[in-house]
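Lecture notes, unit on protein representations.

Consider one protein chain, 199 amino acids long.
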Amino acid sequence: MTSKRIAILTAASAALLGLAGCMTPVGPVEVTRFHQAAAQLGHGTIAVEAAPGLDAKSLELASYNQAVARELTRLGYQVVPEGTGAQVAVVRLDRVTIQPDGGRSPVTVGGGASTGSYGSGVGLGIGIDLSGKPKAQVNTRLGVMIRDRASDRTLWEGRANFTVSASAPLAQTTLGAPRMAAALFSDFPGNNGETVEVK
């Protein structure tokens, strides 16, 4: 192997290691589901609609609606336009940026003293936090209720909760929406009332 080729491979390896070091760890998606009529789920026609009070024209909500529609199709549903379909999947979305309290001091001081039959002693300790300022995080909560359109009865309800660093790629809607929808509908319909973490 030539020295030029070794230099190129070394540079490429260093770049990959550098990128791996910058990757933000991704936490699991916490999912809770409830259902009453499992036999009626996973087939027939269904429309995906925004929950009351949400802006149905929002681009962010549209990304989550599309991700939910893909998962419903994968499960065996035929997704149809809003206002039609035997069932309706009502989508609720809540995204919040959390700014951690940066008010703590990076330096802490502790002291102690003791006395005994062999003498006395005094100690002082200083701790310095080098981890830097806490980073902002994005918390996303996705909720879906599948209802029978004719009776308005809820057949299935699921909630997904996901928190990542605001600088993480999954904080972006285009990447986070498919991940959350896939987690929410994994092992559909899920165990009734059980909260699980989907990695």
